[in-house]
Every structure is written in C-alpha cells, then in structure tokens.
Amino acid sequence: MQEPASDGAGGHNGVGVSSANDATNGAMRRGRKGAQVSSKDDLIANIVQAEWEMFQKVPNVGGPAGCQQDPKTFEIMRSSQAASWSEAALESYLDDLVTAQRHGRNLLTEKYARMMASTAPAEYAALEPLLPVLDPTALHLIDAIVEVVLAWETDLSTKFPHVLQRGRPLHATEDRPGVTSVETYLRGELASYSLRTLKLYLGNVRVQEKEGVNGSELALSQTVKRYGYESLTAAEQRLAQRGRS
Predict the structure, then answer these.
(1) Distance between CA atoms of 75 and 81, rounded to whole angstroms?
(2) Which of 74, 119, 180, 243 has the least C-beta neighbours within 10 A?
(3) Domain extents for the chain?
(4) Where is 124: in which H helix or E strand?
(5) Cα–Cα nearest to 73, from 43, 98, 47, 52
(6) Distance CA 102, CA 187 (A)
(7) Counting beta carbons within 10 angstroms of the beta carbon of residue 88, is it exposed (0 to 12), middle (13 to 18) or buried (19 or more)?
(8) CB-based burial label for 36 (10 Å; 0-12, 13-18, 19+)
(9) What is the pLDDT of residues 69-87, one digit of tens each?
(10) How many whole angstroms separate alpha carbon 150 and alpha carbon 55?
(11) CB-CB contact of 125 with 113 (8 Å)
C-alpha cells in the first residue's frame, strides 16, 4: 500500500500552521480501554488512542511513514475533527473501533485502501476484494455527508484562503499520486464507519447545517488553536503576511 498521509481533521492535514508555543501542546492522551467514558473529552481521547494504534499498523511501501511516528500531530488533527461531532456519534464510532479491534480489522488500513480507488486505481484493483462490501444505504449516507461537507469546505476556502491553500485540494478530480483530495479522503474515512455511525454523523451534520454552523470550520478552528493561534482569522492574517514577505 502506498504511503499514508498524515491523518487530518476533516481532511485538513497539511494545513501548515505553526507557532513558537505549539510545543506546549501535550502529547497524545492515553485512552482507557474497556473503561466507562464520562465526557466528550474522554470519548475523543479513547477514539484517538484506538485510531493511533491502528494507524501505526497501516502497511506502507518502504517502511513506516514519518507521520506514523508523529503521535502529537496525529492527536491534534484527529481530536480537532472529533470536537465537531455529537457525543452520540462519538460513542458509536468508538464502538466501531473497539469492535474492529476485537475482530482483527484495521479501519485505518481500510480507509487508506479505499482512497486508492481514486489516487492509485491499478493498485486498488488488487486490494478491493479484501475490503468489506459497502451496503447501498451506506453509500447513500456517504454521498449525503460529502455533499454538505464539500459545501462547507468551499465556503472555508473563500473565507480563509491562505489557511486552506496549505491543505488538501478539494475535489476528487484533483487527485494524483501522492495527493489526496478532501473529497477522496472523506469518502475513504466514511466508508470505514458502521451504518449506525454514518446515520448519527449525518444527523449531526444536518443539525449543524440547519443551525447555520459550518462543521468543517469548527474542526479547523480547533486545529489552529492547538497550534497557538487565537482564531482562524488570526491564522489567516498571519499566513497572508508571510505570503507578502
């Protein structure tokens, strides 16, 4: 399998923001396997820990990729994405991860394999028979989620162009070897979720959409704050200044 990209929040990995005090952000919090979780933060910590363990086992041509040896960046990106989720969706996804571990499945390996349908079709043809067949209902849910998220991402690219230009391209038509779009990344990730998680995630997205909330902006805002910026606006201004210098 080709090299996994650093796993990102809402597909925004590679956002490239940094500051002098990002070193103060803590290392990945350890999840408590088998323990009752009592808050959203606990849910996210358990999810990120389970994902990290799977991520380290994703096969990569030439040995482990650099991002597979960077738990700090992984934790920032994944926890930022999860921050925009409802607790019900988080609980369901944590159950997906625990169940997968119990049955010897690696959901992150499956996620990256599915991305290759667009980025490396020839290699994907050999992997496809090894992947679970997606339920037609799951495909419908994925399409519905992707439609909303891509609209959010388009809005973000207008509001914060300097931040977004440092991340992934938006559409699958922009995929190429070594470059995975937000759309392809998102479809690959969603395909690893159970039907229950997909339904809850879509429900969360629909609520945000109805309330005029951009879920991708929530996730990206959390990301830049973890890198020391006060807000997305502050990050945009700083990156714009760097571009002019």
Answers:
(1) 10
(2) 243
(3) 9-244
(4) helix 121-127
(5) 52
(6) 24
(7) middle
(8) exposed
(9) 689 999 999 999 999 999 9
(10) 25
(11) no
